[in-house]
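(Protein data)
===
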Amino acid sequence: MLDPGLAAALLSPPGLGVLGLLVGSFLNVVVHRLPALMWRAWWQDSVEFQLADPLAWQPLFGQHKPPPPQLAAAAQAVAAELEKLPHEDLLRPGSRCPKCGHVLRWWENIPVLSWLALRGRCSACKTPIAWRYPAVELTTAGLFAAAALHFGPHPATLLWCAVLALLLTMALIDFDTTLLPDGLTLPLIGLGLGGALAGWTGVSPTAAAAGALAGYGSLWLVGFVWRLVRKVNAMAEGDMKMFAGIGALLGWQALPSALMLAAGVGAVVGIAMITGLGRDRSQPIPFGPYLALGGICSIFFGPAMQAIWFG
């Protein structure tokens, strides 16, 4: 059993801050690789189950109509390109420079310090290393330290650290790609329901389940109405699952203020990007980063936010 003094030190703001630096370094890998792994899986599925497959073609286009030969040729071409790709997952291969392929040595992979020591450049080809890498590491460290201050030296604090890491990762991936992977949104819902059952979130299991349903259903309703009025899909299913996770963690009562903050900030940023940066109005704006902001603020300032909005 872990010594109480050591446990308190590990769960203190400095202890969890250091953990946040390490986790933030891994989050950079997840943000970079997970969308690529998803796209690879989608192409693999299209080759195996859709292109040139009579079982997928004939029910839609006719029982006696074979798939066009062009589809078989396209499937073979895609399969050949997939075979050329090296194996990759979230852990392998090791981090490397995307420009020259230089494999980072251990001392080049220390959170923040390595970026400073290398002056933000690859040691081999001198290509600039994006400032976002140390920024993500420092942000994760700050969120973990804030969780330690807010929740105290309790095992439940680790659950909230995991939640914060998931929200940050989803925000970055959605910002980059407009994707919200099930591999992140569904664990968020699971943490909410499991944390409620364990008594770690301050939300009853019934309220957690109601929050998940309310979070998913509220954004589904927004998207449904928007499609009826504007004939445009305004909400993706990933947004609905992400908000369901926030509802499961915080209960349905926290959802209105979180959504109002997300929508307000998203509207301001969207208008600024359209008017100031010339962004195309038809180009979709990811909502995940603003949902993450609403969720994170609700974790730390939920009662105060509800008091501001609703008195």
The chain has a mean pLDDT of 91. The chain has two domains: 4-117, 156-310.
